[in-house]
Amino acid sequence: MSGLARAGVPATVTGHLIRDSSLGLVGETLDPILDLQAQLWSGAPLRAGLVELIRLRSARAVNCVICKAVRYDVARADGVTEQKVASLTAALPGEVLDEDERLVVAFTDAYLSQPAPIAPELAQILLSRFSPAQIAHMAMAIGFFNPMSKCAVSLSGMPESFPLTEISVPPR
Amino acid sequence: MQLHTQSLRGALDCAPQLSQTFEALWAAVWSQPHIPAPVLELCRLQLAKMHRHGSDQMVRHPVAQRAGFDERKAQAVLAGGVDPAAPFSAAEQAVLAFTEQYAMDPGSITDALADDVKRHYGDTGLVTLIEAIGFMDSRLRLASLLTQMLAEGSA
Question: How many Å apart are CA A89 and CA A97, to the nearest integer?
Answer without folding.
Answer: 13
